[in-house]
Design brief:
Elements lengths: L1 H12 L19 E9 L19 E14 L2 E14 L8 E15 L2 E12 L10 E13 L3 E11 L10 E11 L1
Antiparallel strand pairs: 1-2, 1-8, 2-3, 3-4, 4-5, 5-6, 6-7, 7-8
């Protein structure tokens, strides 16, 4: 955990590489964004799975997230505030791990260069169930993403996301996902 916090703090202290003053998560003149994300489960465990693909253990879970966003700035960095609806479909032996959740999150674009952007996000979510991976209904979602602007209104993102409760309960194996997202700004 200390390593993760040290990496995040060091990245946040770097100056953002920006092409212009336009928020790369939205495009020029856009104040709203709708996105859909699809992801594959990459196994329970530590949030280090966000940045280390060698730790991924593909399992029988598929996640879908619909997100509505509005632009903002966090420490002068281009950002977005999100309302998220998440549905995890677990199947096979993991069928009891399905859940639905709603949450709010904040994403920050740390680097913006030639139509590409790199960012991180965090936010609380309320799930409709607890299970053998996470004992609580309240979880926190952390996300790392790389995006590409396709014109002024469209974006695609490759992301990894971790859901856990921060060890508030005894059972906290966490959920990890990796996937793709497509968004439209207007």
């Amino acid at each position: 955990m200390k390593k993760f916090v040290a990496v995040i703090l060091s990245v946040l202290t770097l100056p953002a590489m920006a092409d212009d003053d336009v928020n790369p998560l939205f495009g020029a003149g856009n104040e709203n964004n709708i996105a859909i994300y699809a992801a594959q489960g990459t196994g329970p465990g530590t949030m280090f799975k966000l940045v280390d693909p060698f730790l991924w253990e593909f399992e029988s879970m598929t996640g879908v997230m619909i997100q509505y966003s509005q632009p903002l700035n966090i420490f002068r960095l281009p950002s977005r505030m999100n309302l998220n609806f998440v549905q995890n479909f677990a199947y096979g032996d993991d069928h009891g791990l399905s859940f639905m959740a709603i949450g709010v999150s904040w994403d920050v674009a740390l680097i913006n260069w030639r139509g590409f952007y790199l960012g991180v996000g965090i936010g609380p979510y309320m799930r409709d169930s607890n299970d053998r991976y996470v004992e609580s209904k309240l979880v926190f979602g952390e996300r790392v993403f790389i995006g590409k602007n396709i014109g002024n209104d469209w974006r695609i993102e490759l992301f990894t996301q971790h859901f856990s409760n921060g060890d508030f309960t005894e059972i906290n194996r966490g959920f990890n996902f990796t996937g793709l997202g497509v968004s439209y700004s207007f």
